[in-house]
Amino acid sequence: NAGTEADVYISVYGERGDTGSRQLLRSQKPKKFLKGQTDIFAVEAVHLGHLYKIVIGHNGLGSGNGWFLDKVVIKDPITDLDYTFLCHRWLDQGQDDGNIARELTVTDASTFPGRQELELKREETWAAEKWKFQKGNTLQFYNRLTHGFICLSPDSRVDALGDKKNKYGKLFFMWKCM
Question: What is the pTM of this model?
Answer without folding.
Answer: 0.59
